[in-house]
Amino acid sequence: MLSEALSNCNEQIDSLECCKTDLTPCNCVDALSQDYNSRSDSYDCPKKMNTYVLRYGPAYVSEMYHYLVESDFKERLKGNKVRVVSLGCGFAPDFYALEEYLSTYKPEVELSYTGADTSTCWDIARPEKPNCKFKPLDLTKPFEFGNVDVVIVSKVFSTLYRNGVHVSFLDNLKSAIESTLPDGAIVIFTDVNHYAFGRDVFHNSVSAYLLDFTRYYFDGYEGNGWNKIPNNYIVCDVPDGLSVSSLDGTGKTVVFEYRK
Q1: How big is the chain by its Cα radius of gyration, in Å?
Q2: How far, rounded to the nearest angstrom, does the alpha carbon of residue 53 sit from its chain's CA centroid?
Q3: 40 contacts: CB under 8 Å, gap ≥ 6
Q4: What is the mean pLDDT of residues 197-222?
Q5: What angle do CA 112, 250, 75 make, to 5 degrees?
Q6: Terminal Cα distance for the chain, rounded
Q7: d(Cα 78, Cα 59) in Å, to the nearest integer?
Q8: CB under 8 Å to 14, separation ≥6 — which residues?
Q9: pLDDT for res 37
Q10: pTM of this prediction?
Q11: Alpha-carbon gap, residue 185 to 187, rounded angstroms
Q12: Residue with the larger pLDDT of the pair 141 and 52
């Protein structure tokens, strides 16, 4: 599933230049921790993004996969094709999870995936398959969906929120959902289970016009009526000897599902 991408990132990481401008040692794991704890995220350094994939990739794929299983997602699929757009897709962990899930539970369904992201620093870890394509998209500017079955807001809202540009995104999302997303489509939000990362801001906005929703969580805060996803193990094969150790389970993450 993800093992080839992890190997590619691992092989390339030592040859990539550090983006630090001072003389302190390069430590991308520490930089990612600082992104989470004390500053806004940035995704413009290939070396840090390779580290990100090695560190968090298996957990993020596993979170999406366990949600798909727990929600019995196959029952929401109509016809023999599912068209997915992932906003802020990064290295496309949702694609890896969807492919694995569909091959196991709904092999007759064809996946068509479009990932939208402004950063190209994920390229080494992105899948290269005919049913998977990527495009640049500025989420702070108006966008449309067209003939889409599933929209995934993939761990990008927390970045927009912490950078103070989330309001324009929420306005654009509402406009695109109401004007161009077909009835019966699904919107999936996955992000950090913490109020300081915009979890409740997103839900309060989207649930005002998408009234049919279910909220899932893995660990941490449990909102009223939320469904716990009990499985937290890594579903990917993780190669031995990686230069950066991967998380050994899922994190404090929520997955909110809205149905139009």
Answers
A1: 18
A2: 12
A3: 159, 162, 163
A4: 97
A5: 40
A6: 30
A7: 28
A8: 243
A9: 64
A10: 0.94
A11: 7
A12: 141
As given in the structure block, the two tokens for residue 160 are: 């927009």
- 239: which 2 tokens? 């190669």
- Can you give the pLDDT at residue 14? 81
The string of pLDDT tens digits covering residues 247-257 is 999 999 999 99
Q: What confidence tier does 38 reach under pLDDT thresholds 50, 70, 90?
A: low
Q: Rounded mean pLDDT of the chain?
A: 92
pLDDT tens readout for residues 145-191: 989 999 999 999 999 999 999 999 999 999 999 999 999 999 999 99
pLDDT at 41 over 70: no
Contacts of 74 (CB under 8 A, 6+ apart): 101, 102, 105, 106, 109
Q: Report the 3 state secondary structure along the chain.
A: CCHHHHHHHHHHHCCCCCCCCCCCCCCHHHHHHHHHHCCCCCCCCHHHHHHHHHHHHHHHHHHHHHHHHHCCHHHHCCCCEEEEEEECCCCCHHHHHHHHHHHHHCCCCEEEEEEECCCCCCHHHCCCCCCEEEECCCCCCCCCCCCCCEEEEECCHHHHHHCCCHHHHHHHHHHHHHHHCCCCCEEEEEEECCHHHCHHHHHHHHCCCCCEEEEEECCCCCCCCCEECCCCCCCCCCCCCCCCCCCCCCCCEEEEEEEC
Q: Which residue has the tokens 């413009």?
A: 44
C-alpha–C-alpha distance, residues 256 and 249, integer Å: 20
